């Protein structure tokens, strides 16, 4: 192996579905200023209030999807790591999580000890957001500064529109779409609207009108999560050959009382059932790895909600996970990361 390593970074997971582990994980996650962008005293107060009840609720959700080998997100990420290594001959492929165990710091130290001098950092998020991509990049840079590690760092840019990503998405999803369906819902993770406005370099474009995302200039598109989600959706359905009425986009996982970007997935599930949709396929293209937001929020609660509203069948299309096309695509994109 040479000295050019690849560092894959995913979100993370509690060590177990126990309440104490979930509370510890949620505290680290929610106290990240890129996730809840409030001054520290207000953030600490809000998170403390959330942690009164949320850990027990979330622990039940984690327990319902937990695998014998542990967290699905961690297990699937490890499989991806192995699959990518088969395509990455430049050096070792390491895995880290932004929160919980498998820290970025531990991964960078291992690479330095192995004699690595160059690292390509791959945040495993197709679309840009401060609460995902920025926090991974900044934590990596913080660790490098604090530890004095002399590693040359490159960063894989958000790949929402790259041909390699879209083709892997098509290859992984096609067998599920070929089984027939009434409608395809592309459910992306949501964000508070203020996050979009804060990331807007122009200070005035985002959320300025109903069609602002499709009219985003390049400098705004580079930092607009919602616009990037729409580009990913449109690129995918175009390659799949779907007509306009066969699919729609929504945003899931709202937290708190602030206004989030819409339309909201939970409202769309009811609306689609009321419209007469019986067999609904749901994809979650903001996630490359199945996790609590896909397996439990959509695959369990979403399915129950859709059926209660009059639908018959909700099928969750698996994320890219360790699909061979995705492993090859990720390695290829990391060779030209900018």
Automatic annotation (TrEMBL):
Cell compartment(s), UniProt: Cytoplasm
Keywords: Cytoplasm, Heme biosynthesis, Iron, Lyase, Metal-binding, Porphyrin biosynthesis
GO annotation, cellular component aspect: cytoplasm
Binding site for Fe(2+): 189, 293
EC supergroup of this enzyme: lyase
Pfam families linked to this entry: Ferrochelatase (PF00762)
Predominant cellular place of this UniProt entry's protein: cytoplasm
UniProt catalytic activity: heme b + 2 H(+) = protoporphyrin IX + Fe(2+); Fe-coproporphyrin III + 2 H(+) = coproporphyrin III + Fe(2+)
GO biological process: heme biosynthetic process
EC number: 4.98.1.1
UniProt entry tagged with the keyword Membrane: no
GO molecular function, one term: ferrochelatase activity
InterPro entries: Ferrochelatase (IPR001015), Ferrochelatase_C (IPR033644), Ferrochelatase_N (IPR033659)
Pathway(s) the chain acts in: Porphyrin-containing compound metabolism; protoheme biosynthesis; protoheme from protoporphyrin-IX: step 1/1
NCBIfam families, A to Z: hemH
Family: Belongs to the ferrochelatase family.
Alphabetical list of PANTHER family matching this protein: FERROCHELATASE (PTHR11108), FERROCHELATASE, MITOCHONDRIAL (PTHR11108:SF1)
Biological function: Catalyzes the ferrous insertion into protoporphyrin IX.
HAMAP family per record: Ferrochelatase (MF_00323)
Listed name of the protein: Ferrochelatase
